[in-house]
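Q: What does the assembled structure look like for these inputs?
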Amino acid sequence: MNTRNTKVVNRFEITSRLIAKLKHEEAVIGGIGNTNFDLWASGHRPQNFYMLGSMGLAFPIALGVALAQPDRRVFALEGDGSLLMQLGALSTIAGLKPKNLTMIVMDNGIYQITGAQPTPAANVADIVAIAIGSGLARSAWAADEEDFERLVDDAMAASEPSLIAVRIDDKPGVGTTRRDPVQIRERFMHGLGVRDPL
Amino acid sequence: MAIAEQQPQGSSDGSWHGIVLQTLKRNEISLIPYVPDRVLTPLIKNLHADPYFTTFATAREEEAVGIVAGAWMGGRRGAVLMQTSGFATLANVLASLAVPYQIPLIMFVSERGTLGEFNYGQSLVCRTMRPVLDSLALEHHTITRLDELEFITDRSIKQAVTTQAPVALILNPLLTGGKVFDK
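A:
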């Protein structure tokens, strides 16, 4: 596995670095659990969408946003355990080749939120190899925080979908998303310019 | 009434799938992810052939639901095509995404498992569909007649959008012919 030379980084740190780079109202979809808790903790933006269930659907939801708004950059943050639930989505995205979609996988090899049980993929599967094998040629491990930022810059300049995998530690999320699905959805639609508030 | 002024336009051959395609178009539903089904084949083929639609297969039905949910939030309307057994995989995404986030998810379900089913498993899966829909109090209609198809489809799409609630349109073998053992 090519993960051996990658530094183990922190999810909140990585998420904060991503958010700091977003200057053009880019959409960000946060997968369930710690992934969106750290997105929330990085500072709420109207273009953030937080999932409260439907494990594994961060990339499909982001794909839908990307297909609806091809001129807006769309990011999706997903955990490794969540991604394992929906590996087929990688091929769907590879086939459609949305120019504006970047997928970020936070890989700690465990279901942290349920008690840190190892995933079936831990120590045997390589997320980036799976992504490349699924047809996503622009897939890479981030070696460290600076490399992550460089890969994000590359992805924002690319004209095909990119996947960035990050090895993260076993820390829980820093914040807790306010679990108000209707308000989350409505404010996201305002943030994307689809609707105006009442 | 708007519906009376909007008679089937261009559903040229009057087939069930022609009417569905034209009703989708008239309601500006342009994104159609699906998991295929034999009965849906002519509809899928014609959607692919029409550049108005972005039509593609997904690996699982819940993936397709995620895609149209994201598209809706981004301002583009979609619908998901599936078979009964595919609907049976959706309870989690319906209860944790479509319903609580108030997404007008439009589902077309080709009904297997009844009126001549030859696969026992399909007939059992079919029996789970309406209880799941009813348990979430979701709007659903079983369409059996060609002359009711456009009205039910058009009205249901409009209701889903305006009430921000999912709807399942179940395409019964009486409408489509279904799939029989010798096919």
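Strands of chain A lie at 27-30, 48-50, 74-79, 101-107, 110-111, 117-118, 139-141, 162-167.
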